[in-house]
Amino acid sequence: MSSSNGLIDQVAQRIQHLEQLKIAALKEKNFSVASLCTAELPRLKLRLSDLENQASEKARLAGLKNGADA
Q1: What is the superkingdom listed in this entry's lineage (predicted)?
Q2: What's the pLDDT tens digit per position in 11-65?
Q3: What's the CATH class of domain 2-69?
Q4: Three-state SS across 9-68?
């Protein structure tokens, strides 16, 4: 599961970076870059949500397995 957490962290960092880039682009009136960031953010946020759900499900299943082993 540590690799999942690493991937979750990477996607979260990328989201944060794109949000900062979008703000900077808007301040500079670089609307094409801001638009690209805006277009990419929902996809990354959905990916992050999927990864978090997968990690949660793996933890739940591991808990069930450990309960069955007891």
Answers
A1: Bacteria
A2: 999 999 999 999 999 999 999 999 999 999 999 999 999 999 999 999 889 888 7
A3: mainly alpha
A4: HHHHHHHHHHHHHHHHHHHCCCHHHHHHHHHHHHHHHHHHHHHHHHHHHHHHHHHHHHHH
Residue ranges covered by each domain of the chain: 2-69
CB 8 within 8 A of CB 52: yes
Q: CA-CA distance, 6 to 12, in Å (whole number)?
A: 10
* Whole-Å CA distances, 54 to 16, 18, 40: 21, 24, 21
